[in-house]
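Question thread 4412

I'm putting together a teaching handout and wanted feedback from people who do this every day. The idea is simple: show students a protein as raw sequence, then show them the structure tokens that encode its fold, then repeat with a second protein so they can compare. Below is the first pair exactly as I plan to print it.
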Amino acid sequence: MQNFFKTQKEQKEFNEKMFKEESSQCWAFGLDWKRRQKIRQIIEELDLKKNEKVLDMGCGGGIYAFEIEKKTGTKVTGMDISNNALKMAKKLGCKNLVQGFAEKLPFGKETFDKIYSIETFEHLPDAEKAISEIGRVLRKGGLVTISNPVTPSWKYLWYEQEKPEVHGHINFLSIEQYRKIFAKNGMEFVGARGYGLMEGIIWWHN
């Protein structure tokens, strides 16, 4: 599944198409109870404080970046591969938006105090490279949390029934696999919290 996208251009084109199709759907902008819950959990897990520099890696339509910045006074940068997604985020009210690839983050070393990534890693061709980039742009002592499907539940309930071209779900890693990759990049495991089929996993950059 790592080779579903042969080039970054193919990856970008897929995401542009996906967000163009989904831009008219209510969930693209909607703040339902699940999103409200996840926003509260991100704020709690990362202990977000006013004026901290925060990266939303794979911000999509910007709902998390917008609400978290508004609630905490942090300076959230939303980054996504899709220009269509960033247009949605701008329309929502997000101010600091950057187009880029998770596997090659367009930021300098130790730029951010905290990083979160919501439902992004299952779409990435190279999760290990993206985690390496997180370690590069996160300051020492910073925190990162990701929320995404993990094996085996997600794999058996979804991947076995759907083709990757439907939603671009191409990466299925276990928490243990994530722990090894994050540790390799200097980040210590803090804890995990389940969101049904999703997992919120927290690391500390030592």
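The second pair follows. I'd like the answer to focus on this one:
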Amino acid sequence: MFRKPERLTGKVVDRRGSPVAGAVVTSYPFYQQAFRGVLSTTTDRDGRFVLDNLEVNPLFMKAYGLPFEVFHPDFADANTSAKKLPGDVVVTMPAGCTVSGTVVDTVARRAAKGALIRVDNIGDRGPFYTLTDAKGAFRITVPEGRYDILVETKDRVCRAIVRRELLAGQSVTLPAFELVRGGVIAGQVVNSKTGEPVSMSDGVP
């Protein structure tokens, strides 16, 4: 069902038509990331890219095209598709809100390296993810919208930022997230009438 490997070429630009260098183009995204060298590439100084060795089911291609995504830290992600292969496309990166901040582990008294930042849209987009660096800092650009912003890491919890409005074209620096010691909450849910345990298959009593 798969035909010979094809090639997709193209150019990534901003809303003014200027080339965007350093954008990651991938047809195999995973949590807004790409596996280096696996159906992914990076745009050059002129915003150009080449994706080789694309194997696509002809029936899927006819119905949907080739979905692919483009990531760059200064823009919201671009989700688009190529209608034919081989092909040459132009991708315009959408404006977004750039969010930055830091995460501090108050238990260990140090920056929280590798903490997962989850930005949940109150709507139909996302969630979006990034990780903190060695200094506990993070930076992510997301589409305009209202978001809950959470930090996830092992054995720690912290207060989330909820329903924060993020506007395209703005840069927002959040207050520092302070991690405290977390734990596991265990318990049992019982039916108030029968006293019997309630399972997921029972539905809502």
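Top answer:
Good format. For the second protein you could add a caption like this: The first helix runs from residue 58 to 64. Residues 119 and 128 are 5 Å apart (CA to CA).
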